[in-house]
Amino acid sequence: MAENAKIAILVVAYNAASTLEAVLDRVPASLADQIAEVIVSDDHSQDDTYNIGLEYQQRSPLPITMIRQPHNLGYGGNQKAGYELAIAHGHDFVVLLHGDGQYAPELLPEMVAPLLAGEADAVFGSRMMIKGAARKGGMPLYKYVGNRILSTFENAMLGTDLSEFHSGYRAYSTKALQRIPFQTNTNDFNFDTQIIIQLHEAKQRIVEIPIPTYYGDEICHVNGMSYAANVTKDVISYRLRGVGFGSKDHSASAAKYEFKDDLDSSHGVIINELSERSPGEVLDLGCASGYLAERLRSLNYKVTGIDIEEMDGVKDRTDHFYLADLSQGIPEEAGTDFDVIVAGDVVEHIPNPRRLLTEMHDRVRPEGTVLLCVPNIGHWYPRFRTFFGLFDYDQLGILDEGHLRFFTRRSISKLAMESGFDIVSITPIGLPLSKFKLSGLLYKVAHGFDRLGTKVWSRLFGYQFLLELRPAAPGTVEIAAERDGSSSADVGH
Fold this sequence. Notes:
Elements: E1 7-13, H1 20-25, H2 29-32, E2 35-42, H3 49-59, E3 64-68, H4 74-88, E4 93-98, H5 108-116, E5 122-126, H6 133-136, H7 141-158, E6 170-173, H8 174-178, H9 191-201, E7 206-210, H10 224-241, H11 266-275, E8 281-285, H12 291-298, E9 302-307, H13 314-317, E10 320-323, E11 338-344, H14 353-363, E12 364-375, H15 380-387, H16 409-418, E13 421-429, H17 440-456, H18 458-461, E14 464-471
């Protein structure tokens, strides 16, 4: 790969007439043979940047492509255009270089070395890796302090360990760029933060190398306060997306239904409940990767799983697995007379949930139970969104874009009874706080508040409801009190 790799250099330039030639002169001759193209993208400068670039192109041995954008795209927009061109031209790697000379072209070989060695999908130059180097290089104190504060906050929110988020000296594998939707990012300066988030979500390898700090006479076009606010919003939005709050926006990952093993989660409550019973046969509807089935099998249950997609390893984690679309019903070959049927976060994806519940009624033993978990559309989050006219679908959570039906405690209880079940219990499940990756006192306070709210006012604070159902005896319908202590008469509100 190193011998045949096609390397592109993307020079983003805006009003760089006085610096562009010097930057291109400093491209190391040792790398010249490996450079397939130097794309100089003039972002509709107000000076003579483009013409100077054309003149330089005529006398330079570098394979330079000069582009003048028809209108100003912005810092992020100019990068998008350059990366799309590098991908279209079939290059393997692309290095971002600034036309104002802020980053040293002499380090281009070091920037691409981890990519050529197959050790990274992206390489970031960092001015913070060597203690004191940034200040010695002329970084103003207010920028240094702001950089450190923001980078610390971003690492905490993303779960990363980068020394700096705000350097513009970067190199990417074009394959890594093709794995992320960078085209959806902002055209502003926080493009660089959004692309880090996308790379992190897509599990791409990021390597940092130390670079020198240089501050010259270039004009800074960044509004510091606005930039700080934007990157803060970006990383908070990423963290909120992980628990189902907010749309997918610039997300690089598809929505996935993960196994939730913390004690307060729906899976945790199901495991705890079944661990206290005699093992039997379980039908796991919407079993996903089969991690819940695996835990139940460790409790000596025999588990049959059904899902519309066969995920990696699911057949190893279940006793039997059937590929089926539950909107078309439970496949006959799955069997009948189950001791327990688990339907966690399934019926909201089904156009006709009554049909599926009726089939569950017919497949469970008369003395068996159905554990049915649904998100609560009455939770404060969708209520808040709707009140302010912000109702829309999210990537995950209550307003998951894949949800076809929405339920309150009252509506799911009514549907269950109409499908022939008694309601043994209704357990409200709180927010998936573990996804926020809070720690210490902050987690304890958030957890305590959420649990208190869920106990006192489950209709507003219950993120999900877990119903335990049993086939009703002919002519009878019973509703048990919630486990949090509210009265049975309150179930229908």
